[in-house]
Amino acid sequence: MRILLTNDDGIYAPGLRALRKELQKIGDVIVVAPATEQSAVGHSITLLTPLLVQEVFDDEQLLGWAVEGRPADCVKLALMELLPEPPDLIVSGLNAGSNAGINVLYSGTVAAAIEGAFFQRTSIAVSLEYTKPKLDFPRAADLARCVIEQILAHEPATGTLFNVNIPSLDKGPIRGIRTAAQNVAPYVEKFDRRVDPRGRVYFWTAPGLVCPDPHPDTDVTALAEGFITVTPLQFNLTHGAELEQMSKWRWQL
């Protein structure tokens, strides 16, 4: 099995290295990832600057390519220019911080997996909930591989897209794996307002989105309960019910 591994934390991120080691147990892994951290860039791509690419080696063996671009750029370049053969599987992660609920919309990790699904490759985004500065990436990567192997055992259709979140290992033993819908309940966001020495106002986005009232039986609630969550996603944003209603409108010019 040929596996393309990418992320949004950058090619030197410990989460990517840990997940690569585990994925090598199930296939041949090649990495194409951002040269620097690209967290929360969503599905942006680079248009106005060149995409510089550099080979990266690990113990004198080719690890892959570092791209001066976004996660979605990395997947595009990998599939269209860098890889001699298309991968059977695209994995994005292991991200430092969960990507559940509306974070899916901001996540570069998930965006990379979505880009893979665009190209009709089975794609899986994997994230580890962040609670302390030191994360147990090796243990989380082992769990991620376990989940990925079970997904593949069910032979999903090409282009199928999954979002996997692993709860913080500091909270205690993992209670199991649960399939769950994406939570879409509103989050509470805050900005830290400050004034610089020249009297100019600036803001820092406060860390950590909080969802005070998540919908039950969703990725956010299951993750909080200590379950690994697996959510099938789709990138077709058409509101089907509304489209059906609008088709009955009498449009005029």
Q: Features of this protein?
A:
alpha/beta; 253 residues; 7 helices
Commentary on this structure:
- The protein has 253 residues and is an alpha/beta fold.
- The chain has seven helices and eleven strands.
- The protein has helices at residues 14-23, 71-82, 103-106, 108-118, 137-153, 219-224, 240-246; strands spanning 2-6, 28-34, 53-58, 61-67, 89-96, 122-128, 161-166, 176-179, 191-195, 201-205, 227-233.
- The protein has a nine-stranded mixed β-sheet, with helices on both faces. Strands 9-10 form a two-stranded antiparallel sheet.
- The longest helix has 17 residues, at 137-153.
- The chain starts with a strand and ends in a 7-residue tail after the last helix.
What's the helix and strand layout?
Blueprint: E1 2-6, H1 14-23, E2 28-34, E3 53-58, E4 61-67, H2 71-82, E5 89-96, H3 103-106, H4 108-118, E6 122-128, H5 137-153, E7 161-166, E8 176-179, E9 191-195, E10 201-205, H6 219-224, E11 227-233, H7 240-246
Parallel strand pairs: 1-2, 1-5, 2-4, 5-6, 6-7, 8-11
Antiparallel strand pairs: 3-4, 7-11, 9-10
Helix pairs in contact: 1-5, 2-4
